[in-house]
Amino acid sequence: MHLELITIIVEEYDSAIEFFVETLGFDLIEDSPSLTNDGRPKRWVVVRPPAGTTGILLAQADGDRQRGAVGDQVAGRVGFFLRVVDFAGTYRRMVGAGVKFVTEPRSEPYGQVAVFLDISGNRWDLLGPPEPDRAGRG
Q1: How many independent structural domains does the chain possess?
Q2: What CATH number is attached to the domain comprising 123?
Q3: Residues 110 and 89 in one domain
Q4: Which of 121, 126, 52, 134 is nearest to 89 (CA)?
Q5: What CA–CA distance (Å, rounded) separates 15 from 6?
Q6: Are strands 78-83 and 123-128 parallel, antiparallel or unpaired?
């Protein structure tokens, strides 16, 4: 058993694809025409981190209720967690690409962390391995 997809509601497909693929480095897995439950056209857009198994369905907001959720998927909390091997390098690359970080990198028992915003304003943790302590342990 595995978690195949999660949905993030976005304002617009193409800018969301650009952010996740060009800025974050995700792979575009699928971008296909589809239909809403009531027969209107939409797109089925899936992105996924390289070598990841769980994808993100980018769903363009449809209606006032969904537009109200854009950028507030989890009520202002960090709701998405991107773990990387090279935390410092990934952080520098993301800052250089214009990603907005709302916290400075810090060390926690579970690893290095900095909070950033996606294109819609949802909060994500960029996570890396724990830093070795000054004595060389860790």
Answers
A1: 2
A2: 3.10.180.10
A3: yes
A4: 126
A5: 18
A6: parallel
- In angstroms, rounded to a whole number, what is the distance separating the alpha carbons of residues 135 and 30? 47
| Domain region containing 10 | 1-70
The domain boundary residue, chosen from 70, 102, 128: 70
pLDDT tens for the chain, 138 residues long, are 999 999 999 999 999 999 999 999 999 999 999 998 999 999 999 999 999 999 999 999 999 999 999 999 999 999 999 999 999 999 999 999 999 999 999 999 999 999 999 999 999 999 999 987 643 545
Q: CB-hemisphere CA count at 13 Å for 9?
A: 14
Burial environment of residue 138 by CB neighbours within 10 A (0 to 12, 13 to 18, 19 or more)? exposed
What are φ and ψ of residue 98, in 5° steps?
95, 10
Task: Quote the CA–CA distance of 14 and 60 in Å, as a whole number.
Answer: 10
